[in-house]
Amino acid sequence: MRVLAFLDGTLADPDKAHIRIDDLGIVRGDGVFETILISNGRPRELGPHLDRLARSARLLDLPEPDRPAWERVVRTVIDNWQGSDEFALKLVMTRGIEGDPEGKPTTFAVGMEVDEKAKRARVEGIAAITLDRGIDCDLVDRAPWLLLGAKTLSYALNMAAVREAARRGASDVIFTANDGSVLEGPTSNVIIARGRTLYTPPPTIGILKGTTQGDVFRAAERAGWTTKVEPLRADELASADGLFLASSVRKVTRVHTLDGIVLPDATEIHTELARIYESQYE
Amino acid sequence: MRVLAFLDGTLADPDKAHIRIDDLGIVRGDGVFETILISNGRPRELGPHLDRLARSARLLDLPEPDRPAWERVVRTVIDNWQGSDEFALKLVMTRGIEGDPEGKPTTFAVGMEVDEKAKRARVEGIAAITLDRGIDCDLVDRAPWLLLGAKTLSYALNMAAVREAARRGASDVIFTANDGSVLEGPTSNVIIARGRTLYTPPPTIGILKGTTQGDVFRAAERAGWTTKVEPLRADELASADGLFLASSVRKVTRVHTLDGIVLPDATEIHTELARIYESQYE
């Protein structure tokens, strides 16, 4: 089951071709995207996702996304969805056709089933590896043209990192900076638990502001946890009481093995966080 | 005038949609490409371009490109071209449709007119700026998952760098590494002339091996120049006798202004190099 709608609300067949070969989304990976979890007809964290889409667009000098139109198209996809109760909704905005004098972006939203691997990861946890991202934490300010902190369609390196994880018997990655700071996953944010406190690194070091991570933090605070957004060192990951990757589709996924080392059992913490997070949507 | 052909030799209308919204080329910038200059029905440096396509594919764990098929499709586009004597031919290979169990790449070749801006740049030269690429020169070996040295479809940052140049009144960029080494342009290689010697930085520092640069160097050697592939420092650029950006479409383009400073007049050197380069194809 998939539902494809363009930003003007037109529905289209996702199995047919709709993109030209000279769309800058394909020839240059030049565009931005968001992936939103829809559960029981309700988008999770739609506001933060649209905020981030707008921020990414701004960093790429793309036109400001038409927020009411995106809100409407999200609703259109949801209204036409007839698959599982929970599904992933991807919003895509490319720079449009190369050389188009009007510079009209290509814009669409597509609803897709959550893949089985992601569902299994939510329950069973995953093995992850740390990988050098080769950057300094101040690079985002020093060199904004590198688009750190923008969620662009240029994800080839993120995908290559995940393949490197697979080669090493793992399924996900935590990127680290030159100074040993924890950055983010290729498609997730990092959260650690220490006692009754949750930690995540700050977006100011050149990573995406986490939508699911933010949602988990707010829910945890309401449930009596303390939350801190502050730099983390890679060598703190293995010694934490719990290590998690947060993303819209995988929710809070427990990392049970890091760089081949089995981590202390964080099943209980994960169960609690997953319950706290989920209870907001019941 | 444009000619589009898929790798199987089928011709198609480039103004129609041929790509699905779930092609990994668009949703992840996950694929590789080459741009080849065709002049008078003859592709320039086809062998090195196909070598580099294969190398990029290998770095991305894509299937080995079918070289005879690519050679045939290049010929198909050339045979169907009815535009200017000189045109740009882009080869694109994406990872194909997301979740496709066969993992069949999307592959096409498209011939396009060389844009007027590039033609003007060949004659008039350009202003460029140096921009921090935020990486170390040994990163390519240390972190192959970053895909440095692969020509991928994930070019959003390269395009952002060119927009930054425009904001600073220039039209192109020379990326520099953390140690002040000269890397490459977003879509070109850097060449400097000092006396009768041409210099370009080595691919081992994490940049693309230049096809046009290689061609220019071979032609220059035959004409009595010495050529050296060795690290260059950014502070050497302005003091060289000539600074050039080499790319298939723009050929050898003279940089007349760097970071706002007008460089010594290298018109004569440029004229000589352009003549040497071009004379191979006469």
From TrEMBL, chains A, B:
InterPro entries: Aminotrans_IV, Aminotransferase-like, BCAT-like_C, BCAT-like_N, Class-IV_PLP-Dep_Aminotrnsfr. It comes from the Bacteria. Pfam families: Aminotran_4 (PF01063). One of its GO terms (molecular function) is lyase activity. GO terms for biological process: carboxylic acid biosynthetic process. One of its GO terms (cellular component) is cytosol. Gene3D superfamilies: 3.30.470.10, D-amino Acid Aminotransferase, subunit A, domain 2 (3.20.10.10). The keyword Transmembrane does not apply. Keywords: Lyase. Belongs to the class-IV pyridoxal-phosphate-dependent aminotransferase family. This is 4-amino-4-deoxychorismate lyase.
